[in-house]
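Exercise 7b. C-alpha cells:
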C-alpha cells in the first residue's frame, strides 16, 4: 500500500474516492468492489451495483445447490459418477481426467478448490442445469445474481453475472448459516472454501500472513489484449474474530495478471484496514 493511500485510510477511517481511484487505476477497465463488516454492518463500495461477469465465481452457488440436494437426500456425497469423453472441458484449473470415476464429494471439492471445469459441468448437469441453481439463489432472497450458462457456454463467450453487492449478500448468508444448509453441509462448504488454491495473490495477496480467507475465484481468457474478468469473492476473518465479506470484479482490463491481482489485493486490504478500525 502506498504512503498516499495509507494516509487517506488513517485520515478518514475508510477509503475516499481518491483512494479508490488510486487503487483501481492500474487495472484499467471497470473495477467493482463491495465489502461488509458482518458484525457492525459497515460497508464499502465502488461500482458496487454494476453488473459484472462472474466466470468461475458461479461455482459457489453451484456448491450451495449441491449441498442442498445432499441434505434433501437427492444426492449422496459418496455416489460415484462416471466421466466420459463428452464431459471433457478445458481451463487452467481442470485437473480431472476423462474417462474416470469420481464421487460427488470429489467433484464438489475439485470444482471449488481448483476451479475444475469438468467437475463443474458434470455437477451442473446432475443438479438439473443452471436455472435450478439460479432458482436456489433467488429463493434466498438475493436478486442480481443471474445464472444461465454452463462452463462450456462460458468458454463460448457467454457469462453469468452479478453485482458486488449481491455477492456480499450471498457471502453474508453463508457466514451466518442462512442459506438453508444443515450444520454438516455448512461446515463442509466452509472447509472447502478455506482450501481454495486458486488466486492466492488476490484477496489474500496483501493480508497479514495466516489470515483466514474462505473464497472463490473466477477468471476469463485474455483476448485481443483484454481480460474480461478477474474476480475473487470471500470471507475474511479479522484479528478480533469478526468476519467481513469482500467481492472484487475486474472487468475488461488491459493490464497484466499481476496488476489485476494486485488491484484485488489492495481493495481487500483496504477493507481489512477499514473494518479493523473502530467506527467514528
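Sequence design result:
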Amino acid at each position: 500500500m502506498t504512503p498516499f493511500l495509507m494516509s487517506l485510510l488513517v485520515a478518514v477511517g475508510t477509503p475516499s474516492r481518491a483512494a479508490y481511484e488510486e487503487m483501481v487505476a492500474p487495472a484499467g477497465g471497470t473495477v467493482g468492489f463491495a465489502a461488509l463488516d458482518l458484525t457492525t454492518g459497515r460497508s464499502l463500495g465502488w461500482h458496487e451495483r454494476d453488473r459484472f461477469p462472474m466466470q468461475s465465481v458461479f461455482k459457489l452457488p453451484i456448491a450451495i445447490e449441491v449441498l442442498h440436494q445432499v441434505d434433501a437426500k437427492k444426492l449422496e456425497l459418496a455416489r460415484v459418477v462416471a466421466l466420459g469423453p463428452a464431459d471433457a472441458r478445458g481451463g487452467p484449473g481442470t485437473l480431472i481426467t476423462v474417462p474416470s470415476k469420481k464421487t460427488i464429494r470429489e467433484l464438489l471439492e475439485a470444482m471449488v478448490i481448483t476451479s475444475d471445469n469438468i467437475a463443474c459441468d458434470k455437477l451442473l448437469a446432475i443438479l438439473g442445469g443452471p436455472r435450478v441453481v439460479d432458482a436456489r439463489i433467488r429463493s434466498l432472497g438475493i436478486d442480481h445474481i443471474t445464472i444461465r450458462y454452463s462452463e462450456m457456454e462460458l468458454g463460448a463467450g457467454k457469462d453469468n453475472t452479478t453485482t458486488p453487492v449481491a455477492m456480499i449478500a450471498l457471502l453474508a448468508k453463508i457466514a451466518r448459516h442462512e442459506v438453508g444448509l444443515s450444520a454438516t453441509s455448512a461446515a463442509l462448504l466452509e472447509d472447502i472454501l478455506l482450501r481454495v488454491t486458486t488466486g492466492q495473490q488476490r484477496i489474500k495477496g496483501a493480508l497479514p500472513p495466516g489470515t483466514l480467507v474462505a473464497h472463490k475465484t473466477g477468471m476469463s481468457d485474455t483476448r485481443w489484449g483484454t481480460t474480461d474478468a478477474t474476480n475473487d469473492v470471500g470471507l475474511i476473518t479479522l484479528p478480533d474474530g469478526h468476519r467481513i465479506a469482500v467481492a472484487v470484479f475486474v472487468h475488461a482490463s488491459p493490464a497484466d495478471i499481476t496488476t489485476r491481482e494486485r488491484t484485488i489485493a489492495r481493495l481487500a486490504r483496504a477493507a481489512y484496514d477499514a473494518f479493523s478500525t473502530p467506527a467514528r
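Instructor comment: Residues 36 and 140 are 18 Å apart (CA to CA). The chain has one domain: 16-276.
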